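Protocol step 4 of 6: structure prediction from sequence.
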Amino acid sequence: MQIGKLLDRVESNAIVLPEFQREFVWKRQQAKELMDSLYKGYPIGGLLTWETENPPEIKNDAIDEEKQALFEILLDGQQRLTVLYMLLKDEIPPYYDESDIENDPRKLYFNVETGEFHFENKRVREGTQWVKVVNCFTESVSAISIARSAAGDDDPGEVLQISEQYEKQLKQLQNVETHDLPVETLPKSADIHQAIELFDKINSQGTHLSDAELALAHMSAEWPHIRRHMKDKQADLAEKGFDFDLNFYVKCMIGVITQTMTYEQVYDTPRGTLEGKWNSLAKDDGVLDYVVNVLQNEAHIPNSDYINTRDVLIPFIVYLDKQDRQITQQRKKEFIRWLYAAMMWTRYSGSSDSTVEHDLSLLDNPSPTEDLMQEIKNDRGRIEVQASDLRGRGKRTRRFYNMVRMVTRANSPVDWMTGEPLIGSYELQSHHIFPKSRLYDEYDAGRSAHRKLVNEIANRAFLTPETNQKLGDTLPKEYLPEVKERHPDALPSQFIPDNEELWKVENYEDFLAKRREKLATAINDYMESLVTEGGSGPERESIEDLIAGGENARVEFKETFLYDVYQDQPNKDLKAAVTKEVSAFANSGGGVVIIGVEDNDFKPVGIERDLNLMNDGKDSFELQLNREIANRLGKMMATAYTHVTFEEVDGKTVCVVWVDDSPDPVYFEDDGGEKFYARSGSSSEPLGIQDASQYIQRNWS
């Protein structure tokens, strides 16, 4: 069929694109080569369509199924047909919109003298023989006018001769519209999975489909809108700083559905299962949002630029889904430690799918994080970082560079000019402590070894853009003494050697050696702190001091969590009492609930009576506590804004529930409906509708 007629059929939605097809992925160079081949009369292959009375979901809802009995679905050739539609009609085809086209080919130009194609640049724009390809099909391009511009009006005969040559070239280009493309059609008897299998076989000869893209196509056959839902979540997380491609979300789905990385296992997964698992992952308080919250607020990973391989998140995501997001604070820290180790030691380089699948098989073990860490140790021989690992490593060695960035954020750095804490999602730039321009006076920039030396991680600090710019190319011996005097915490927070002799250019290599040691120690200490009782994080007042200070606006004591001291039996109402206090603190700037302390005389009595009612000791205690908070206050409250530790005080084990200030009002759910609690002195009070409204208006609006 002639190209022009095929494009008319696309325009009228007689040929449509199925939702399971991937987006337009061709680069501009491919579009240029396609037009060049057609101009020269070379074959460009045919199209494959599928006639069906039961169409799959169609991209952009381009058809009305009630008014149409037979549908022609494009299985192969959409990249070529999309390019041709845009270049010959100067429009986006109806199965796409502007946002779907990343590499728009419509700035392609044609040289009427040489027959060359080139994308727009200054030379092309100013050249008289260059015309836009789209204009050759949508406007009247005058060869004589171009010839006059090229040759001038002095010699009419020469102008006529040149215009005839130009006209011939233009006609040859415009004949593309009448070029025949063979179209093969899959019969109506084929079902959607057969169509997808053929679609994959055909594509394997061209722009190859990844395993994840093919799996998504099969999932789309069962749940037509899954691609749209994934793209919506992709955009949502990208706004939060975590920009992953669709393949990542497909692999997450495969992991939570099959506990493997075997793509074929999801091909016939029923729609209900697909929807259920996707909702678990992607709803507002789902696994993906939880993971992003952990990364930003606890792992010091503000965005996906800090993650050198997205696959490292999949075991954590699958584990959380299996546990319905019920995870102890300590287990969470163990996973954070494993994430760091897996990224530093490139756990998922090479055949990552098989490695991910192996690691997924460990998640049901009693100590999954220990087993995951052991796998890394088996591969690398060690987990600890040595100073020599950082030698010659620069920004391009992302696995160590990112780890230094994260440990620096975890160490509560302060700005070198203002002394302000650099916390949260603060934008930080990489600053050369010894300026490159000054070092290259000492080292040869043309030598690779010297460039590595100048750009080492050990010569980097992380500062605000303003401070980075102000320091410019000032030498450290000139500015570090002032930083040290004005802000004593600034240099230790970024592991800068304190010996001022090392701040001189002539001692640069000694500075690097010392700072490599300090960075390696900082990484190892931080990693180790994640698996010690209480973990890391901001330094808090000691539990002994909190108990000695008694109850107040920020501290509440509970003698037990489940055990009723008066009736000598379990009492589930006591759980609700603890959760009520959590909600009040969340609404009142944060605080701490200490379980195992008498609230009359502030005497630690421990939680042993509660533990005797539970099967697995402190793990059961924490899981029941988290479940109670999740059920009454919401899962994000349980997973993101409360942190549980167990402490020894006077020989007694107490449970400490640290409660963060909530970014939104928190409502306590009980049999009588939702109630709003806030802290008033040393007690938590329910507010009436009017008071609650005013309180919320004052604190959150």
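Step 5 (inspection) to follow. The CA atoms of residues 362 and 368 lie 6 Å apart.
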